[in-house]
Amino acid sequence: MVTAGKCNAPQLIEHSGFLVVRDDLLAGGTKARVLSVLFGAAAEYVYASPVYGFAQIALAHVARQHGKRATIFCARRAVRHPRTLAAAAAGAEIVEIPAGYLNVVQARARAYCKLTGAELLPHGLDTPALISALAAVARGLPVKPREVWAVAGSGVLLRALQEAWPAAQFFGVRIGGTPDVGRARLYVAPEKFEQAARTLPPFPSCSNYDAKAWQFIRQHARPGALFWNVAG
Q1: Is 12-27+126-229 a domain of CATH 3.30.1510.10?
Q2: What is the pLDDT of residues 195-211, one digit of tens each?
């Protein structure tokens, strides 16, 4: 696996007739490529995360590389989720909230930042700066796809890819709440958010997120379509 501090261009590998961006090969996944654009003078950055989320891992890696503190607020579980463990292993401080519905976790994170002066990062890292940075990464790839697929948590990635490739058709797979996917056509994953994908792709893919797109790609995507696999 490539470390997040050495963000080479994403690897494009063909799988089952589709072109896959294999950012599962990058520690922290796709957002680790560009997350540092959100860093300013603050010494500590805070993120309120579902325990299943990968942004917590991206923040942990990138904060460590830039000499910042990363603090992750998430729901308390009897046993920590593997992705929360991965964030902690990468250097993040973990704050677990009992009865931690995401809105409660976010409220506690806001209160912590107000008290400490730490900077709270938005849900999905949804900012114009990060979207523009992701679009620049996509434009740097040696392809101009006609059809693009991605999972839509917040919809940040899909909107960035539309900025990069305005002539392409876009398809997203909703995995939880209603995302902002721009002009993408949206499918809805049959699994609950906390459930793993029923149909796994033939490469490492985040079971609660990216992997849920594969069943739709196999059924509906044209040969040669591009799928952006954010993390593994």
Answers
A1: no
A2: 999 999 999 999 989 99
